[in-house]
Amino acid sequence: MSTRSTRSTVKFFHPFSLRGQSEVLPAGDYEILVEEELLQGLSFLAYRKTATYLIVAGNGRTEMREISGNDLEEELSRDRAANDDKQQSEAAPFPPEDLK
Which end of the chain, N or C, is more open, meaning fewer C-beta atoms within 10 Å of its C-beta? Predict the structure, then answer.
C-alpha cells in the first residue's frame, strides 16, 4: 500500500502536556509528522490519515510521540485561547490614564 508523510510546524505559546502524559513540554515550535495511506479501489486519489506524531527534541535526543489529531487541535486551541486572554489583560486601558 502506498503511503505519504507530511511535515508541518506548530507553535505553542505556553507550556503544555499531551493527553495521557504527565510531562509538561515547554512553549516553542514543534514539528508535526502526519502519515497517510492511499485508499485503493477508488476512481480518484484519496488518502486516509494513519498516524500523527509530535516531534520532541531535548536532552540530546529526539522522540516521535504518537498523538491524536483531535488532541493536538484541542491543545492548540487551548494555547491560543490562553494567549488571547493574556494579550487582552496586558492591553493598555483606553483612554490612556495619562491623558486625564
Answer: C
pTM of the model: 0.76
**pLDDT bucket at 88, cuts 50 / 70 / 90:** low
SS3 content of the chain, % helix, strand, coil (to 5): 25, 40, 35
Its sign, for the CA torsion 69, 75, 76, 81, is: positive
Closest among 53, 89, 57, 46 to 71, alpha carbons compared: 53
CA distance 14 to 91: 19
Instruction: List, in sequence order, every residue forming a beta bridge with 58; answer none if it has no partner.
Output: 61
Beta bridge partners of 38: 47
Residue 21: closest CA among 67, 60, 90: 67
Q: CA 27 to CA 2: how far, in whole Å? A: 35
- Residue 74: what residue type? E
Helix (H, G, I), strand (E, B) or coil at 75: helix
